[in-house]
Amino acid sequence: DGVLMFQQVPMVEIDGMKMMQIRAILSYIAVKHNRYGKDLKERALTDMYVKGITDLIQIIIMFPFSPPEAKEKNLDSVKKRATNRYFPVFEKVLKQHGQDFLMSNRSSWADVQLIEAILAVEEKMPAVLSTFPQLQAFKIRMSNMPTIKKFLQPGSPRKPPPDEHYVETVLKIFKV
Amino acid sequence: MSGKPKLHYFNGRGRMETIRWLLAAAGVEFEECFLESKDDLTTLQKGGFLLFQQVPMVEIDGMKMVQTRAILNYIAAKHNLYGKDLKERALIDMYVEGTTDLSELLMMYPFQPADKKEQHFATLVDKATNRYFPVYEQVLKDHGQDFLVGNQFSRADVQLLETLLMAEEYKADILAKFPLLQKFKARISNIPPIKKFLQPGSQRKPPTQEKDVPKVMKIFY
């Protein structure tokens, strides 16, 4: 019907626009609600952190679609990336400035994406944070923020981990 | 030590080319440090220069920036190429994500195994002419202005031009059905800093050839 700009979803109707492209949508929401850092340099840092976390989330998103024979290898890949490349960076950031959030004392887009990624990885590997004490504390802090706490409760719009039915549905809709 | 941004990447287009385009369009002179071997990459990684152990990396304004999108966002905002308000920025972001997706397809072609090349080529022509180009053609048609967003030159215009030219390298007549994109291409190519960037001797990189692929693979894999 011409509603989807590049014929793809996600699409979000917001403030009179039909927005496409995940990053564009997230950027818009982040700026509008002051979750993007207070100046250009903080924004640059936020962008870097967010993009790194996005790369990790991307591997996790693709995981349920792995063929059965590749599942174990891919799971191992997720674990390695998380524990060798991404988590150490954020563990260090938090340790170095000793503050509650990645970008100083106010929660930002980067913090929300990091908690999302942590919880998604933990679903597959419950002990993954065992060597990251700062991230453990961060996870508890973020989970207790009122808006996030609410989102983490049953009945919220948060979606459950992907299962067989989800994979089938996606493949059917996108005719892959 | 100069105040110019310093780009760290291999001597080819890859993910750094869009950054080169944007710096050039903004009239910013930059230096380049080319990775020739895996050792060069390892040196950067071990030196703690790469936040997520990856390039592109750009030293700019006292930061060692990584992640192509983060770098592009910073340059665009700093040089007023990102629209005048949040809504223009949203439009620019959407358009730019589209050109990025298409550019990615184009960029990956030389790295496809021989038996996948034909299929990949067919896909990129199909996506370009059926999914992406029609959108930008329509945008230009709807508002009749010279630039994609807000009647003002922005990163969206730069990135679209880059993508159009790259697509034409694959199929010379790929813009045949898109008269407004053809005019757009001519118009944006004539903007002085861009015109300069398109001339021989500039820092624009040539298309990646088959023969370059093994060297690049060795650096990164």
Automatic annotation (TrEMBL), chain A:
Instruction: Report if keyword Transferase is assigned.
Output: yes
Tell me the domain of life.
Eukaryota
What's its EC? 2.5.1.18
InterPro entries attached here? Answer: Glutathione-S-Trfase_C-like, Glutathione-S-Trfase_C_sf, Glutathione_S-Trfase, Glutathione_S-Trfase_N, GST_C, GST_superfamily
Pfam entry (one): GST_C_3
Q: Which residue numbers delimit the GST C-terminal domain?
A: 39-163
Q: What is this protein called?
A: glutathione transferase
UniProtKB/TrEMBL annotation, chain B:
* Pfam families per the UniProt record, alphabetical: GST_C_3, GST_N
Signal peptide residues on this chain, from the entry's feature table:
none
- GST C-terminal domain: from which residue to which, for each copy? 85-208
Q: Per the UniProt entry, what is one GO biological process?
A: xenobiotic metabolic process
Matching entries from SUPFAM superfamilies are given as:
GST C-terminal domain-like (SSF47616), Thioredoxin-like (SSF52833)
Q: Which InterPro entries match?
A: Glutathione-S-Trfase_C-like, Glutathione-S-Trfase_C_sf, Glutathione_S-Trfase, Glutathione_S-Trfase_N, GST_alpha, GST_C, GST_superfamily, Thioredoxin-like_sf
Q: Where is the GST N-terminal domain?
A: 3-83
Identify the domain of life: Eukaryota
- Keywords, ordered alphabetically: Transferase
Q: What EC number(s) does this enzyme carry?
A: 2.5.1.18
Q: Gene3D superfamilies attached here?
A: 1.20.1050.10, Glutaredoxin
Per its record, what are the GO molecular function terms? glutathione transferase activity
Family, as annotated: Belongs to the GST superfamily. Alpha family.
Put simply, this protein is called glutathione transferase
